[in-house]
Amino acid sequence: MEPQPASATPRVLARLGSQLDWYWTLSPSGRAAFWATFGGWALDAYNQMTLGFVLPAVSTEFALSTAQAGLLGSLGLVMSAVGGALAGALADAVGRVRVLILSIGSYALFGLLAGCAQSYEQLMVFLMLQGLGFGGEWAAGAVLVAEYAQAKQRGRVIGAVQSAWSIGYAGVLIANTLAFSLAPPEVAWRMMFWLGAVPAIVLLWVRTRVQESTVYRAEVAARGAGTGRAGARPGSALLGLFRRDQLRVTLASALLSVGVMGAGLAIWLPTYLEQVRQLTVEGISAYMGIQVIGGFVGCVSAGYVLDALGRRRGLALFALGSALSAWAYVVLPLGDAWLVFAIGFPLGFFGSGIFSGLAVYLAELYPTELRGAGQGFGYNIGRGVAAVGPAAIGVAAARVGLSDALALAATSYVLCLVALLFLPETRGKPLAG
Predict the structure, then answer these.
(1) Distances in Å between the alpha carbon of 276 and those of 124, 323, 390?
(2) Relative to the CA of 315, which of 63, 118, 323, 342 has its CA 20 to 30 Å away?
(3) Burial of 247 (0-12, 13-18, 19+ CB in 10 A)
(4) With contact defined as beta carbons under 8 Å apart, do 384 and 78 qualify?
């Protein structure tokens, strides 16, 4: 009897398992930190992306111009930059976990209040205060998970956490479809904000049981023994970013973040699909859905790419892909709807995946005593400077049209390539100090 060929299924499963072994290299405390940060980032995505979906309904209810509508997004990003810089420094001073608890509580509360706003001015204030919590979420969470991860697999661990953004984005798509199908627009946009606050209660409880990393606890012990380099005050960490030995990294990483943020393109994409492509709510959800799928795959894949190619080459690849796909998405003729739909996948893949690279890279660029401040300042100063994007797009759209305004904004990714010329390679770098 001839021998039967071995089934390929066990080999495929074994190979897949080897690609996911990074999860089991995390300690039990590390896995708890992973899921607490994963859940918070998904909820952060839901709350932050809600504005883009409700902007047409909000603009109609409060009779807003395109410039006023863009200002809502811009001010929220400015406040997230301020909140992120402060939260990162606070994470170095009092701990990553405490900042995560404060962050989710604040942006859930003000998201709930945003749904109750009775005027444009009230909504603006609530979104600005909500932005403070947005900034703190990733500043503390990415650092905490990076400190738990092994050096050789840190990219894929952070990439997996970053993929939670797509989960939250999918939640926005589902909520958007249901809310605007079941309620009139003047009620539906409020429901969208309220739904973002519900999961925060469970996540708050989870985070009270998360422990600080051994890397951070060792730094705290060094401070207590008088051997730590930075003091335990937030101001010390922020000032430390501008020491002579850190200044180049601080400035270049901020420029990198500005480029990654893409000038606020995501805020305007739902409006673009409605006003330029003339899509219904269901059509918008379908188009954005393919971007969400691409984003999830991109975030996870980016971690593997950066672990294989290195941080600088990996980020350069994703910056080029982001620029080209964003440009193509908005310049195709209106008759090529199917092609725009297809380009949604690479747009999500590169545009979301690049954030995975940014998060792990920033965590590796700074020593432990400045890591939270560096992540918070670098990541969120990008948000802050790029915050002019939504408002600028709104102003430009009034003159040249929304499609051309978005195409011009896509050129911001070129800044990533410039910034990478001034930053070192950090693949495999230990985070013990």
Answers:
(1) 26, 20, 17
(2) 342
(3) exposed
(4) yes
DSSP letter string, 212-233? --HHHHHHHHHHHTT--SS-SS
CB 270 within 8 A of CB 284: yes
Residue 64, both tokens? 């807003």
Confidence (pLDDT) at 1? 47
Per-residue pLDDT, 309 = 93
**Cβ atoms within 10 A of the Cβ of 257, count?**
27
Domain count of the fold of the chain: 1
User: Where do runs of H (alpha helix) occur along 261-336?
Assistant: 265-275, 281-309, 311-331
CATH number at residue 321: 1.20.1250.20
The residue behind tokens 């199917």 is: 338
- Cα–Cα–Cα angle for 238, 242, 243, nearest 5°? 115
d(CA 255, CA 250): 9
Burial class (CB in 10 A: 0-12, 13-18, 19+), 181: exposed
DSSP state of 210: -
Cα separation, 346 vs 324, whole angstroms: 9
Instruction: Supply the range of the domain harboring residue 176.
Output: 25-221+230-420
Residues of the chain with pLDDT under 70: 1-19, 226-235, 262-264, 266-267, 278, 281, 333-337, 386-387, 389-390, 432-433
Cα 118 to Cα 227: distance, rounded to the nearest angstrom: 53
19 inside domain: no
Q: What is the DSSP string of 329-367?
A: HHHS-TT-HHHHHHHHHHHHHHHHHHHHHHHHHHHHHS-
Instruction: Name which of 127, 115, 138 is nearest 76 in CA terms.
Output: 127
